[in-house]
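Fold it.
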Amino acid sequence: MKNKNVMIGMTAAAMAALTLSGMPVMAQDAEGAVDIQILATSDLHGKFDPYDYAVNEESTSGSMAQIQSAVKELRTDNTILLDVGDTIQGNSADLFLEDEVHPMAIGMNLMNYDVWVPGNHEFNYGVDVLKKIMGEQKAAVLCGNVYNADGSSLSDGYTIIEKDGVKVAVIGMVTPNITRWDAANLAEYNVTDPVEETKKIIDEVKDDVDVIVAAEHMGESNEYEVADSGVEDLANACPEIDVIVAAHEHKLVEGTEVNGVLIVENQDAGKTLAQVNLTVEKDENGEYEVTNKTSASIAAADYEADEEFTAALADADARAKEDANTVIGTLNNGPLAPENEIEGIAQAKLQETALIDLINEVQMYYTDADVSASALFVDSANLQSGDIRKCDLALIYKYANTLYKVQMTGKQLKQYMEWSASYYNTYKDGDLTISFNPDIAGFNYDMFSGINYEVNIANEAGSRIENVTRADGSELKDDDVITLAVNNYRANSQLLSYGEIYKEGEDLPVLLEMDVKGEIGGVRELIGDYIANVKGGTLDAPELAGNWRVTGNDWDADLHTQVAELINTGKIALPASESGRNTNVKSITVDDVKSAQ
């Protein structure tokens, strides 16, 4: 186990440089020392081959096939290969859920993974599906903080792997927030605190092992302010751990130290392979201790796909491509979204569009709900006139969400709408563009159908929703009861639990039905079914209902037109967040125009 005086040896950048030069990186040898290497993946999201089936194009930014090439190059007799979940969701992986062996399990078995830890998305399809996938794995499956109704654990919480006389305990847990996203799927299960569960295992094994590795499907920091849902809490509570392999956030962490514990994390979709090397030596009492730790991130894009791997998954690849290219209908009167007036500012977030109206129309059709809400997941989302293939549905609806039906009051709906409208920055005198709050992800801005409203961005967040009426123009009273169609992520993350919208002590909306028409699939599949079967394969772009608009941006129209031209010609750049991840985070003003002249 860990020596308190251990320092992390080589920097991640230095390790990466050596690795990419073709030299396997190992901790420095000493007499009697044992080098243990941990290679880890996570958040693969169905990316077994270098292909994005949702958009039907090659994607060599990462894949299991490319990672296999890296693993073959780096693997030693003392290597432990593990994965930390979010494996069977995304990239058409749900197409294979009923196969005898899922392609992702085939790939992991071919790569000889030692450990697999389920992630939160493994629970999206119900625990019975997860148990089936668990049974297909040759690797040890670890998920120590989920319990069946009878009190038995869903799987083991740890396994011990011996390498060259060194005993390594690998502990596996999943974020406790799965109860937020898949509450209904987990109604008969008990999800416990992963830090407390990890402590129990450490107490059980610490005298019998030499190294402790925690592979936990959680990000660095706590999520939704839920204690012990981030690995920093775990590191602070359990200094006996040598290495934590985090997951879930899709955030590259090449190697950081918290309370003496080394933490690494991968990007998503097979883009990176985490590499950790431990030097283990015997102390004066003849007991092993970790004397050096190094870490690096290996970029999958630097490797070609392994031919043996792609050959083994060739049938699945062909099926996914064939499925992606299936024509399901025709769009007339497209496109579904207008061109952007200003390059870099999604027009579809500033006005009602046929694109969002279509999603909401589908959701209301299958739920018979009064109101529907949906977000523009990708700013470029759109669909042009012509044939609609199955893969084109991802251009409308990116994520594999399922559909929920929720009951709420008029007051609760208005609270939800106010939360959504906080996506906009407050309009100030002199502003010439509408900008977006850099602290709010675009997928957390929902637009509503079945209800009439205005968003007054001259007001501060929390006081923006005005002139709310039902679709027929009648008043929506606070105590009115309505039904809402919404995806499972929004329902479980914000509507059915206390947090950002509803506070402790308030009544919560009520889940009426989860996974509506689940036999068809999620929202994306329901859109396809709606086009193919309800509309008979011919989709006319929905006519705009004129049910909502943005108000309060009382700018000079001529100057606004001038700003649009300045931005579109590159003479003014839209402000971006410090990370560069979010753009249009501040409005262009009259003063900006003067400076550009």
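The chain has 16 helices and 27 strands.
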